[in-house]
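so my prof wants the structure for this chain in the tokens format not the other one, which i didnt know existed until like an hour ago. anyway here's the sequence
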Amino acid sequence: MATAVSKEVDVWAKARKAADDLYDLRDTFFPQKPDDKTSKLLQESDLALKLLDSIPAEQRKLPVQRATYEYLRGKILDVLPDYRKEAEDHLSKAVKLNPSLADAWLCLGNFIWKKGDLPSAKNCFNLALSKGPNKKILCQLSMLERRMAQDVENQAEMVEESIQHAKDAITLDVKDGNSWYNLGNACLTSFFVTGTWDHSKLMQSLKAYQNAEKDERMKSNPDLYFNCATVNKYLENYDRALNGFETASLKDPSLNASEEVEKMLNLLNKLENLLRGHSRAKRLASLASRTGDVNWNSLYKRATLDVLSEGLNKAVAVLGKVLLFVKHENITPLYFLVCDSNQSCFVLTVYGIRNDAIKEGDEVILLEPYFRHVDFSWKGKCYQFRSIRVDFLEQLLINGKALPPHQAIATSIYAQHKP
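here's what i got, hopefully its the right format
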């Protein structure tokens, strides 16, 4: 009797493992040709279905057993990105036969999300969560809320819910890399939906991704490297961003990571050439001499580029003349070439404002500037320039005047994720 029960448990365990292995394959196998992945998934799902169907009929009689069978069959069929009505039918049967089967609610929610019915998908995730705390369900709910935020007015509020659910998942398992990765995505999305100015969100995101990387299982996740590189790009850690995008491209050629590398290098080369050209320009002296024509009363100490400290410069103001707006292939930030009163040229990056707020020839006053001396090599080429980053609208005075609130803008970009 004991042996028979053991064999029954063993065959169900093998079927569960086959379904789990199928999803591991989906999340870790990234061949050069996407069709090769689809073929591999089809092949492995057929084997998993045969293993499931090998369970004797007498071991599928009880409602709990039938529910598990329907759940596993629906899960296996749903591993491919396309909508399959058959998968929905099996998952729906599973939750009817056993409403306490949280994993089945989770799979059904993912399937309904794929179908485009986001509110119903969220309802499924909440039903799954009502069966007990579960990090996987919390992560999926967090992901779904970020997707739903794209279609609502209260985007920031919805993303904050996503962040909270991501944090709840981490409290259940502080070493789970996927939960940390999910939190990183939530913080990165928050950075964008709140106007691309709050760099503390980027730092939170970066820390979460770094914690995710400590989990060996996450080393195969190309999106982790892609998103971490995105954070480093906006933090202007150009060398780390290039390394991250290159790693992501090697792990999953279908990502646009190689294009991101190309765009960054195009921008860096353009900045370097422009800085070199303007540093020799004859008109620089006359432009620099006119810097400071605007009268302004301030508690800030006036400074030039040469005396700035690396990082945030509190109670300091830099006066500069805008030489030109640097066009590039990304939406944000805005890049400008600026010179100070000492004829020192630097790159100015501005977040969260409209691209017509600053014009060539404008005099800018940069309050509490964040200063960086960029100095790194990539593929044998050295990049060196100085830059100032401005995060807040209030840090800018244009021709002696503050920018009006309507010049602020939010950027609709979201963290890379695959539900």
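also thought this was worth mentioning. The CA atoms of residues 239 and 380 lie 12 Å apart.
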